[in-house]
């Protein structure tokens, strides 16, 4: 553990950010899984769940939690799966 006040403050702040980022990443993954399973099952709500997943991906990208190319790749794969049905 560091000894200076400023490095302790940076450590505390980075831990808060890490926890917040983990929460957002997990919710993005949950939305993606729900959308994929909905599309596979052929549910009528698949379109709505895919839209929700894409929205959560966009929010994570705008906050800098996931890279924009990864966000684009995830959205592309979701739409490809949705349009295939």
Mean pLDDT: 94
Q: Figure out the total of helices.
A: 3
The secondary-structure element order is: HHH
How would you name the oligomeric state of the polypeptide chains in this document?
single chain
- Envelope shape: elongated
Strand portion: under 5%
Low-confidence runs: none
**What's the total number of strands?**
0
Your description of this structure?
By secondary structure, the chain is an all-alpha fold. The protein has one domain (24-84). Helices cover 84% and strands 0% of the residues. The chain contains 3 helices and no strands. It has helices at residues 5-41, 46-62, 68-84.
Summarize the structure.
The chain is an all-alpha fold and 85 residues long. It has one domain.
């Amino acid at each position: 553990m560091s000894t200076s006040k400023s490095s302790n403050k940076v450590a505390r702040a980075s831990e808060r950010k890490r926890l917040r980022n983990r929460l957002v990443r997990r919710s993005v993954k949950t939305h993606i899984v729900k959308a994929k399973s909905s599309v596979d099952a052929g549910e009528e709500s698949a379109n709505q769940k895919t839209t929700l997943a894409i929205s959560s991906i966009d929010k994570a990208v705008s906050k800098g939690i996931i890279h924009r190319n990864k966000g684009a790749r995830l959205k592309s794969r979701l739409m490809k799966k949705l349009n295939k049905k």
